[in-house]
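Hi there,

I know you've been waiting on this one. I reran it after we fixed the sequence typo, so this is the corrected version. Both the input and the resulting structure follow.
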Amino acid sequence: MLFNSFPFIFLFLPLALAGYQLLRRHGVAWLGLCSLCFYAWWDWRFLPLLLASICFNYCAGLAICSLHGRWRAAVFIVSLLLDLGLLLWFKYAAFLFGISAGLPLPIGISFFTFTQLAFLVDCWRGSAREPGFAPYLLFVSYFPHLVAGPVLHHAEMMPQFRNGRPLQAEDLALGLTIFAMGLAKKVLVADNLAPLANPVFAAGAAPQLLDAWIGTLAYAMQLYFDFSGYSDMAIGLSRLFGVRLPENFDSPYQSRNIAEFWRRWHMTLSRFLRDYLYIPLGGNRKGEWRRRANLMATMILGGAWHGAGWTFLAWGALHGVFLVLHQRFGANRPGWWGGPLTFCAVLLAWVPFRSPDLASALSIWAGMAGLHGAGLPHALGGPGLRWIPAGGMELPLLLLAALAAWFAPNTRQLVEQRWNGRLRNAGAVAALLLACVFSMNRPTEFLYFQF
């Protein structure tokens, strides 16, 4: 079930809100049941897998918190290995061993596995204790974040899952506002940029200079508005129930250096990689060379988290190299060129991330260097753009999307600055929702569902 679909907006969400209001004394259990139904809508075959993972890690958390000595260590290690083994089997077995689980990838498996891995690590460190099965089930399966994040941390979520809380008018207003903004990012912007990006990244396309740059820029904007739109919708939906999810995007394309970009892009994943990978590896505590090695390892594994393929590893390695170069040469040298240089680096790295294979990525980079021809417009005496649709609104939309990503405030800032409960603002939100609804004739999946 997609957030940008009629069944979700006009059936599932109203029933979830009505049931939560009527069953306030059992609100946590009701939201947990709704979340399981939401997941089963995708593919009921994977609901037992999700439930088994939740039950296993719940029991493991109890054991880690109550046992001592070798038994505690044994439970912790076995639990981590089984969780990682499940992820490896479904997501990486074909890539690593040439075998397949025989089923499609369970949606959201990376998110619910990493959420529970972090919880087990915190149980081992003594900074978390099992709160009860119903809150834990809701924490893992909470439908606004389950299939594409944000990556949640128990410390910020568990205190918010409380029974007896009625729906609040302010939460409903703010939640609908944020949801509408996210839906508009997805339906009105990201989906309409796909025709610019998809042909350029087709296998064997060999795009010319302008096609390659326009297609890559279109994908950069498509991915940003698609994923930040999902995150906004998740935050807005959660706010309807009085629960606040962490922010996941902070205008990352406005970053002045690559380190700042990773503090502002997919912020909850960056936090997870820092707290549960980079710092345990040693962080910056064991010398400069070890620091660089830790950065490279973290970014390569972050690339592998996104998918089983050399293209994702290459994307992660590129960002690792960018971060190492930034710390070596650019950390204390801010300048006007920092922002454009950072965006160009991010843009070049999106090429392998989107490409079907490394050969296609190399071909697109060659096209960006002009090795396949310039592809100048007719007005400049050239043959015209080969892959870019002519006569449509895609190019003006791309320009507007880029200007918004580079200069506009993010959703949180817009809501804080503009929303004040006035009727005209409510009318604007209603008009935005209507525009999105009329554009939802063919709902498309979110790009991060594949991860």
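Quick highlight: Residues 115 and 197 are 32 Å apart (CA to CA).

Best,
R. S.
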